[in-house]
Design brief:
Layout: H1 3-13, H2 24-68, H3 90-109, H4 114-137
Helix pairs in contact: 3-4
Keywords: Membrane, Transmembrane, Transmembrane helix
Length: about 140
Amino acid sequence: MNELDYLRQMRSLNRPVSPRRDLWAGVEARLDESSAASSRRHRARPWLMAAAIAGVAVLGGGIGLHLTAPGGGENVAAGTPWKPSDPRLTGAAVELDAARMELTQAMQDSPDSAALQRLLLRTERQRDRLRNLDKQAS
């Protein structure tokens, strides 16, 4: 078989071909099935919408309560010095404030240092724990 024969065969494939059986019966059956399934889906949507609205309302209420809840006097900036009411904690507070100030100065020299960022975060956590201890003691 040469190239001319291949071209003739390919041209013969370009002609329209009718199906061996009637396809419309199958198409109609599938359309009827999909319309029944669609009506079932539409019946479930009001419950879905109600659940979504309830979820959004609960989420919005929770956020609103969180934003309007009193902070318990914790509106002090992290950079301001803090003096605990319990004298036993005063020394630790002074040490933590000094460490925090040294770390912030070192961070100005190398702001991308991951080790300094971890140390500063650890110092802030210790300061928060110390504040919690002060609250419990008073």
